[in-house]
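Final report, closing paragraph on structural work. Over the funding period we assembled a curated collection of sequence-structure pairs, and we close with a single example.
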Amino acid sequence: MPSRYRDQLVSRCAGQLIVTIDAIDPCLCVYPLPEWELIEAKLRELASFREENRRLQRLLIGNAVDIELDASGRFLVPPRLREYAKLDKRAMLVGQINKFQLWDEDAWNAVSEADMAAIKQPGALSDDLRDLIL
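Its predicted structure, as stored:
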């Protein structure tokens, strides 16, 4: 992890992170603790009588693990979560505004390539989104 990101994480959350599965993509989500607390509060507010709410709560909270950055900005991912994301030798830590995604490098390259091809299609992006990249 680049030192500027590590330094920001240490200052924002004392290196305390939460890692859990991404319920949509085959990767892991890594949240600074304050960001995770916001997600956890939103999940707590969901009506528990709806099956899709319970399912999402079980997946995200049930797989959440506290992790901590070491002095070099590294962290250990538990085997169960490494298995879920098929993490082996090479991984990609991808910034996502309020969190990171942790991908197997080959999976990330395939998704990134597909995303790039998709947004190049005519009409694929609204004017508001297009303005973000111009």
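Helices lie at 3-13, 33-45, 51-62, 79-84, 105-119, 127-133. The first helix runs from residue 3 to 13. We thank the funder for supporting this effort.
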